[in-house]
Prior knowledge:
membrane, 2 domains, Four Helix Bundle (Hemerythrin (Met), subunit A), mainly alpha, 72% helix, 8 helices, Myeloid associated differentiation marker
Amino acid sequence: MPLIIFPTSQLLWVRVAALLFTCVAFSVAAHGANVDGGMADWCIFCWAFSFACTLLVLLVEQFGLQARAPVSWSNFPITIACYATLLCLSASVIFPLYFLKYQQHGSDAARDHRIVSTVFSCLATVAYMGEVSLSRARPGEVAGYMATAPGLLKVCQTFVACVIFILVSNPVLYDSHAALKWCMAVYCICFILSMAVVVLCVGECTGCLPIPFSKFLSAYGLLAVIMYLTATIIWPVFQFDKQYHGRSYGSSNLITVAVLTALNFLLYLADLAYTARLVFVTV
């Protein structure tokens, strides 16, 4: 009778831990935490999505199906791990802030369930951070683009842009000035291009570009830095300066968007520096 042997490694155990932690987090939250609304749905989605993707990665690797997968397996697992890290991190912040600090009502049992979900969400975040650390490319090591610093920065850029989109989903926050509409164009264009790079790398389609992939990354990186620099300056000026009829409506969201815009500018700047080093130093 044939035996199925599952090879073990540090990376395998980290993924199993992340799988268990996310499973407990969303199961407990859905079962007895007595939470509802958009924030609860988002947190449960973060845990469930991370759980499902990690389970998929584990099954494919343990049964040796990497060659049959329609994606680049040198890029897919670490991309999933990086997104899962950011998703679980956001849930670890949002869930206790919204359901433990601001919503004190509910039974003691429901509160205990919320605490358990928060703890296991934090543990899942640490586990996914460990997976990213174990999977990322080391100096001199041949690896997929998504395992390099620029690839991981692309994931962070798209995630930060998604948070910005959520915060400015109300057109009232940006339709009063053409300059603010330009900022929204910056967020959208850079998000689409960064996500396109991620999809091309994971789908192993970088050769489909009409120009060399390295030149595309350099040109796009420089363009994104310039565009985000303008948005970093324009957004706070036109939102908060009384000269331009700055308003306090949704001020907390507006401040958060200003901070995230500056953060993404720094991410794109670091991305450009790493890309320039990879292209011009190694060539």
